[in-house]
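Chain entry —
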Amino acid sequence: MDQIAQLAAQLEAYNAAYRSGEPLVDDATYDALVEQLRRLDPYHPYLKAVEPEAFPGRAEVRHPSPMLSTDKAYTDAQLERYVARVQKEADAAGLQEVLFRVTPKLDGLAGRDDGQVFASRGNGFVGYDITDAFAKGVVPLGGRGQGLGEIVVVLSYFEKQLADKFEHPRNMVVGIVSSDTLNVDAQQALEEGMVRFVPYSQLPSWEGNGEVLLKEIETIIQSLASGIDYPMDGVVVEAVDQALKARMGATTHHYRWQIAIKRKGQTAVTQVENIQWQVGRTGNVTPVLEVTPVPLSGATIRRVTAHHAGMLTKLGIGPGARIEIIRSGEVIPKLEQVLEAVAEINIPEKCPACGLELSWKGDFLRCTHVNCPAQTEQRISHWFRTLGNADWFGIKTIKRIVAAGFDSLEKIYAMTVSDFSSLGFGPVQSANLAEALRISRTKAVEDWRFLAALGIADLGVGDSRKLLQHHALEELAGLDVQQIIRISGFGEITSHAIVQGLAEAGPTLHHLLNLGFNLERTPKAAVAGVPNGPLSGKNLVFTGKMQHGSRETMQDEARRLGGNVQSAVSGTTDYLICGEKVGAAKRSKAAQLGVQMLSEEEYYQLIKR
C-alpha cells in the first residue's frame, strides 16, 4: 500500500473508532495526520467530506443546512492566519469592524433538534433519527427545538462516578444513543439528569475584535472553560457578521468563517504493566500498552497506543517501564517519552490470533498467513466501512460471523435471515443484517470506493479512482505490470504489488460484480487524443469567487468530466475559469501564456456543449 493510501486507511480507521465512542488516538495526532494527507494529496476524497458517523437501523434525516466539520488551529500563527483571512474578506466587502465570537468546543455527540426530530450529524448532509434519546432520559437544555448542539455528560459527575467504568465521556454518550439496552451506570446518570443535549446557543461566549482575540486568547479560553461543567476540547472562533459568513462560504469539509482552537493536552506519568498485541487487516501486529491507571484530563487512563513493535525495542518499552503520556482532545493518550526503560523486551514470535510464525517488515511485526481470523475480521470490517452505504456490520458482529465460518465476502453475501438467526442474533437484528446486505448491493456507490473496499495493498481510494479512469473493474484481474506503469503516478514496485493483489482478489471481485452492485462508473481519461468527456485531456484552473457553487464543487465536477484541475496557471493550462474579483496579475499571466479565459457562464456553456 502506498503512503497516501495507507495514511487514508489509517485515518478512516481512527475516525470510525472515534465515532463509535472508542477513540484510538488523540485529536492532535489525528489532525496532524490529516494535514500530512493534505500535503501529499490535496484533492484526496477523505479531505473533501465530513468524517462520517452511523447509527445502524435508524431512519436517515437530511439536514436543512450542512453540519460540517471545523478547521483546526493549534498554534498562534495558525490563528493569526485565520484572523487575517477573515479581515481580508471583510475589507473586500467594505465592513468597517470585524467581530469574532468564541464559545467552548464541547466533546460530545453533535446533533440538531428542530423540536420534532432530533438528528445526529451523520456525514454532515444526512444524519440519523436519534429522537428516542430524549425518551431515554437525555435532558434538552433550554427545552426542545434549540437547533444545533451536542449530547454530553456533566463532567464533574463523570469524574466522580464513572471515570473508572468508561474510557471517555463520549464513549458513554454514544452507547446511550446507539443501544436499546442500557447498563446500570448509564441508566443512573440519565435518571439523575446528568446526560444533556446542550445547544450551542446556550453556551457562554466572548465577543471582540481580532486584535484583542489574538492578544488575550489564553485568558479567553481559561475563562470559558471555568464557566462550564462539560467535556471540552478547545474553543470555536467564528465571525459574527452574517453577510461576511455568507461571503466566505464553506468547503465540502468545513466553514471558512470558523475555526477551532486546540492546545497541547495534559501529561501524566505512569508505568507499563502489560502489552497486548492487535492484528490489523494487512497483517501488522501492533502493541497496546496496558498501564497503571492514572487520572488525566478528566478520565482514568488504562491503555496507551504504540505505533509498532520497533518502537518497543528501540525505546526499551516493556512491563516495568515508566513513561510520560499526553492527552490532547480528551481521547486515548499517546506516548510522549520514556522516563525509565527496561532491558527485557518480549516480542511475540507467533501471531496472537492464528498462532503461526510472525515476520518483520521494517519496524512492523507482521502475520503473513492470509487465513488469520483477525485479518479476516479486519478485511471484512474494512469492506463495509469503506463501501459506506449500509450499516449493522460492526466489528463485534463481524467477529461472531467469522467465528461461525462465514469468513469471506462470498459467504457473507449468501447469508439469509435464517443464517443470522442460527448464529444467535435476534429476529430484528437478523432481518436488519440481511437487509443491510441487500442495501449495500442496491444503493449506489462509486466504483472506486467499491475497489478500494477490497483492501488490496497499495490500492486506496485515490489510486483506485486513478486506475479506473483507464480500466474498468471487469478488466482489472487480467492487467499486467506494464499496463499499470503506463498510468501516470504508478511506479514499478507499486504496480507489481497491485497486480499481485488484483490477481489474489480476482475471484472475489468477479463474484461480487456478478451480484449486481449498483456502481457509479468513473469517467475514462482521454486516451491517444480521443476525448471521452467534455473536458477530457484539458487542464483547468479555477479562480475567484464563484456564483453557482463553491470552487471545490466545480473542481470535483471538472474531474468527473475528465478534466485535470491545476492549482496555478502554467504553459500547460488550457482554460482559466474566472469568478468574481480575479487579480489582474493572474489574468495577465494567462494572456501571456495564451491560456483561454472563461467566465463562469462561458464555462458552463462549454461543458453543456
The CA atoms of residues 220 and 226 lie 10 Å apart. The chain has 22 helices and 25 strands.
